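quick one before i forget lol
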Amino acid sequence: MKGLRIAIGILIIIVCLLAFYIALLQWQLRSINRQLGKRLTGDTRQPVSLELINRALNQLAANINKCLKAEETLRLDSVREEKKFKELIANISHDLRTPLTAIKGYQQLMEKGELTTDQREKLYIARKYAEELGRLIEHFFEFSYLVNAELKINIERINLTNLVTECLASFVPSFEERGLTVQLAETPLVFALADQEMTVRIVQNLIRNCIAHSAGDVVVGLSTSNNAVILFENQVNNDAEIDVKRIFDRFYTGDRARSKNTGLGLSIVKLLAEQMGGAVAAEFQGNKIIIKVELPL
């Protein structure tokens, strides 16, 4: 009996030790989870540390730290590349402005001279392409400014209906030149809490996008749900291969004739809307594309 009691006592001690060891392992796993949680929330960049000697857990922690270090390296490389890209865009837009100004100056001098009808037609075409190049450069400059500058946003209650109406009216000659008509759907007055200047930029870029790529008439609508909503709807060419999930990406274009589009106009719309707490989306309905911009009420 005495030997049995000793054996039972030893087993109890072993079970207690095992239970204590398992409790330590669970505590250490919870500690690892807490450390990873802090990493995910950005509260710390420290590697995962252990306070328990266990070969398997030590190997796990080492592999986790290797993955975290690789991820951190990729993140820093991405930040550096993004910074270089923004600087490149800013430099390109600045460098292109100087020769374009000279080109426009010489064109104006030529226009004042004695030209034949054929020469004037060719000069008109040259000036038209120079103006288009100027607009593209302005897009580059605007994009580089928006992504680099710390904008001061002046949020106020604005009459979105009047703002959109005025913007559309200012682009009527451009619509007529492309043989397009624009219809503003009748809705009650819609207001939004937004920066007026930034909202004007959004609407102007949406209008320019329609003028450049619409294969038919344009319908513009305003509505309210949880947010104030601006809708631009237009037909697209059958040969356009548009991915609505990427339409707001910079430099993305669905046109096969890539020279028509820099892919910056809609990315600027997305950037401005998100800076004001809004959102953007796009969808197809038949052969029409609908672009939606939401702004806070």
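fyi Residues 55-112 form the longest helix (58 residues).
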